[in-house]
Amino acid sequence: MRQLSPLERQGKTNLGLCPSGQDNRICTFAGQTAFRGLEVAGEFGEVAEALKKYLRGTRGIKGSTADLQDVANEMADAIIALDLLADQMGIDLGAAVTRKFNATSQKYGLETRLPADD
Length: 118
Ligand SMILES: [Mg+2]
Hints:
mainly alpha
């Protein structure tokens, strides 16, 4: 049985993605998860675009450019979108990052560990 997301446990199953009277197919769990997944893909694409423009600017290549703050803003958007997807799926993203980072550090004999949230 699927684990309820934190929002579902709070009774907030409609994340505002489906105003009344509009196509409600996206209001299903699968629809909202797919939407969040597409947001993640889009935001990581925006990171790549900002990075391309940043590098274009540093190399003096003609065309639109971006500064480091633009890149940082897109990185933040991507992480926020990923956290929203994780929340939608009932995944604690912070705990998953800590667990994965520490497992990889241990696997390769590295000393760096992230502190676990208790
Ligand atoms: Mg963005």
